[in-house]
Amino acid sequence: MQNITFILYDSIFNSVFASQVLTPLQSRLDGTPGATATIISFESHAVSQKKLKKICNDSRITLKVIKKIPFLGTLSLRYAAFKLRPLLRTITSSEIIARGPLAGWIAYNAINQSIPLIIQARGLAAQEYLYAHAPASWWHQFRAWQYKAIERTVYGQYAQSKNVHIHTVSDALKQYLRNEWNTPQEKVSVATYDVPQAYTPATVHTWRLHTRAQLQITTDAYVYVYNGSAHPWQCPEKTVSFFAKKYRENKKNFLLILTQSKERFSTLLRAQHIPQSAYHITCVPHADIYEYLAAADAGLLFRESHCINWVSRPTKALEYHAVGLPIIHNDTIEMLTKKRPSY
């Protein structure tokens, strides 16, 4: 019986866990009758069985939690590998997947080297850390140096091993790893199994009519949708400014915002003097996201011009594509444009 073991270091409570980990894993299990999976997550706090069941109530998937200590570079990762090793001995794994360079470092140092290990390169850890903490103090620069050293080890040294393969999210990230850390060409590929399925036009049309009626959006409105948070790198100001211009050009334009950052977007819309009748802000479960996206005519996806965005494959872009939405963007993501990066 096939059992996939998935190792996480960025928490099952991460906002993208459902879309980037759980849903793709369930899709793989759907395609392999009798297959099971074990998700092992390093968490800072204890997690009750009740919470675990609420996060994943799929009988084919077992969730296990290991206590995570504060990050002290590879010292913390060595401790994590030490804790992971005996747990892995109790699991018959046909394949191990590690999400990101930290989980990849832990898994490589904990497993039997005969077991296939896929390390998912989701982004650039050091660059993302520096971006989030700009302007960087000496401490932040040191922490970024630690992340970069781990990335160099995982994507450079560990990738040489026979049992290791690197899955990136984009051609741009694949090329970055090869240029920056000499990742062997034959050991790195662009993963597609976590790309959501495309829905049929008939299904999308049914959802469109139902959701517009539910939200009281007129059938002749042109609906722009933004699906995401209000982090600075996600350019919420640009999103609202873009719609404000479109609304002033045509009062039938409507903005649908799917987010947990309701207050932030409300503030931005009020500042642009957009009436409440021209927009709707809501937060919906990931399982329902496509029904709401189907109500729109175009998806909005603006990002800052930076290498971390250029090499990314935003989940939101994939979700827009799944319901056939054209994407309005600002040429900062390689997968959406073939222009040269401006960073």
Structural write-up:
The structure is a single chain. The chain is α/β, with parallel strands linked by helices and 343 residues long. The protein has two domains: 3-190, Glycogen Phosphorylase B (Rossmann fold); 201-336, Glycogen Phosphorylase B (Rossmann fold), CATH 3.40.50.2000. It has helices at residues 17-30, 49-55, 74-89, 100-108, 125-132, 138-157, 171-181, 201-215, 236-249, 262-271, 289-293, 307-310, 315-322; strands at residues 3-8, 36-43, 61-67, 95-99, 117-121, 164-168, 188-190, 222-227, 253-258, 279-282, 298-301, 327-329. The strands form two sheets. Strands 3-2-1-4-5-6-7 form a seven-stranded parallel β-sheet, sandwiched between helices. α4 links the parallel β4 (95-99) and β5. α3 (74-89) crosses α4 (100-108) and α4 crosses α6 (138-157).
Question: What is the CATH third-level topology name of the largest domain?
Answer: Rossmann fold
Q: Low-confidence runs (pLDDT<50, min 5 residues)?
A: none
What is the share of helical residues?
Answer: 40-55%
Average of per-residue pLDDT values: 93
- The rounded distance between the terminal residues' Cα atoms is 48 Å
Classification by helices and strands:
alpha/beta
For the report, how would you describe the main beta sheet? 7 strands, parallel
Radius of gyration from the CA trace? Answer: 21 Å
Task: Please list the strands of the largest sheet in the order they lie side by side.
Answer: 3-2-1-4-5-6-7
Strand content: 15-25%
User: Would you identify the CATH architecture of the largest domain?
Assistant: 3-Layer(aba) Sandwich
The oligomerization state is single chain
Number of strands: 12
Give me the number of helical elements: 13
Question: CATH superfamily assignment of the largest domain?
Answer: Glycogen Phosphorylase B
Which shape, going by the Cα principal axes? globular
Query: Could you say how many structural domains there are in total?
Result: 2
Broad CATH class of the largest domain = Alpha Beta
H/E topology pattern = EHEHEHEHEHHEHEHEHEHEHEHHE
